Amino acid sequence: MANPLFQLDQLRTLVAVVEAGSLSAGAPRVFLSASAVSEQLRKLEQQAGHPLLLRSKGGVQPTPAGQRLLVWARQMLALNDEAYRDLRGVPLTGALRLGVTDYFRPAELSHLLARVQARYPGVNLQVSVLKSGLIEAAYAAGELDVGVTLRVAGPGSARTGQLLRREPLQWLAAPGWRPEPGQALRLLALPDSCSLHQFTVGLLQRRRVPYVVALQASGVAGLQSALAAGLGLACLNASSQAPGVQAVAAPHGLPALPQAGFWVLPARQGESDFVRQARALLLADLA
Hints:
CATH superfamily of the domain at 168-259: Periplasmic binding protein-like II
Structural class: alpha/beta
Distance between the termini: 32 Å
Family: Belongs to the LysR transcriptional regulatory family.
Mean pLDDT: 87
Pfam families: HTH_1, LysR_substrate
Number of strands: 11
CATH topology of the domain at 168-259: D-Maltodextrin-Binding Protein, domain 2
Domain HTH lysR-type: 6-63
Organism: Curvibacter cyanobacteriorum
Order of helices and strands: HHHEEHEHEHEEEHEHEEEH
Shape: globular
Low-confidence stretches: none
Number of helices: 9
Keywords: DNA-binding, Transcription, Transcription regulation
């Protein structure tokens, strides 16, 4: 009978390779040769019973099974590191500046962050809820330690960083809302600096769907209120659906929508041990 336990060193190798983008780039992160990394991944795939990575000249991408295992791997590695620090009497202490897009699980985010703060009281968590573009700019300027942004899946979309979760995009409106024949859609959105606003407008223009931006809310909460009031429809990720708002029932004649991904911006060169450890623990909880 096969050993049912995953090996932490193999899980660590999987995470390193996915985050680095290739076997050769991930090998130095776990202090192994490329051939040793390949062998560890082969054993891990055999243990999992599924292919975990898609390999190409451009690097590697996790398969659906690989993505599922990545979530567990990060949680197991974070717990292992936490247990080691606890037994060795080395608490995690310091300030972590986190930027999160306001599309990320808006109904749950405050509870998730409160749970993280309770589990790691030595971490001073400083949270900014911003648009993805502002998060990327602040991160590039060194004003944030960790950034979580939203990206719409599609050809040419960026893949740098670490995928945290995927969600479908949906057309949302108040119950009973239907497009009015011959009338321009009343589109509700965040300001035009928002990447999802830009995607939605671009999609409607390409499909020649008449629309008017009837309202620009400053944040997702305001957008949810406007939708519930029946002021129009919006393109939002699934976890942004709120009470009094639902997906527009098919057939509706609106363009099909892709998935959105929540990505963690890639680690900086020379990142401190505290930031690296705090990121791993934080993202294991948020995932």
